Amino acid sequence: MGAARPNGVVLALGSNDLQPIADGDTKVEPLTDRWQELYAKRVADVLGALRTRTGNIILVGLAPVQNPALFADYEKLNDVLRAQAVRAGVVFAPVWDGFVDDDGKYAASGAAVDGQRRRLRFNDGVRFTRAGARKLAFFTQKDLTRFLSEAPRIEEPQGADGRSGPLSLSDIARGASTLAGGPASASAPIAVKLQPNEAARALLEGTPMPVVPGRADDYSWPPGAAATAAAAAAPVGAPPVDDRTPAQAPPP
Predict the structure, then answer these.
(1) Which helix (H) or strand (E) is 55 found in, with range?
(2) Tell me: the pLDDT tens digits for 93-102?
(3) What phi and psi values does residue 243 have, to the nearest 5 degrees?
(4) Which end of the chain is more exposed for a tag (fewer CB within 10 A), N or C?
């Protein structure tokens, strides 16, 4: 985890741990007394390393599997995990009883978190269905929610002088003449009233831009005085006068 300090850790161990452990020059077979001692130390070391980052740790117990031999092995391994969780002062989530029947045997189906009877395990007798995975997570939900609710509130970063800048535009004082976060002025702030230009008013307030007479978007009616006067002075049947260029006399 590096330097991270999580609000909580959910740790699942054991499902692939039934392997021989090296003890000097020898290999110790799984679940023998010596193996359990060595494995317990490994678990203790992992939990100890995590506790240097957070005390909010949930160690998830093993769920039963369909294979009878592994079923018995997982029960023994659960005892080791539970003992180390208690010794380290962390939460142990016992999920075993959620996946067995009334006789304590492996059950592929059972009560789901919604109260309905559903398939919890796949046909391989190991993996969880969606409903089974949700039930597995249910055993950690209460403690994990508590860890997160107790997490300290993260304060907003402050500037070098200990002051925080505005968190939104509305936090800036109206009429201020200095930039936010700048050095304090000994004199009273000078209120500067800015007059928004026409483009700003159009964007911010929806005020229409003034119409330019004669432009394509000039839909005013009746037409402007200049256009009206030019139309009245032109003789009947004469071509329209282009007022953008000076009129030129015809050649003699």
Answers:
(1) none
(2) 999 999 999 9
(3) -80, 5
(4) C
